[in-house]
Design goal:
The protein has 174 residues and is α/β, with parallel strands linked by helices.
Length: 174
Amino acid sequence: MAEKPTPLEPLDESWERALCVVAHPDDMEFGAAAAVARWTGQGKSVVYCMVTSGEAGIDGLDPDACREVREAEQVASARIVGVDVVDFLRQPDGVLEYGVAMRALIAAEVRRHRPDIVVTGNFRDTWGGRNLNQADHIAVGRAVVDAVRDAGNRWVFADQLGGADGLEPWGGVR
């Protein structure tokens, strides 16, 4: 007889602003869109950030055409769950690499939107067992964890601060 899994702990919902950062359009729909609908229904503000536009995601469609389709689908899908802001960083789909450049892009998003919480996808090597995760998911998730910390440090990516965008350090992510 199999053991019952440990029950999940309820998420503390005593926050007001969330930023969801994932690799591709549709990653939120395969992950946390139902939770997002719950949160926006509670009056919380949720912003989506797609690191790519998913342009390598449809084999029979040219990447430029695919980008248009995937971005439009993502904006429409976000609206259904109550998300009005969807940022596309337009990094190259399928070949993302974890590193300083990606951390800087995501830290700027954290500084811009000043969230209380940040949501990202699974960044482990697998989905459990032998089901391998996609490289873009791993790179983005790792960068999100580091960029949240980076965003609060005025000496990391200092070039982002004070300019035309008015960005300031943000260490308020719980």
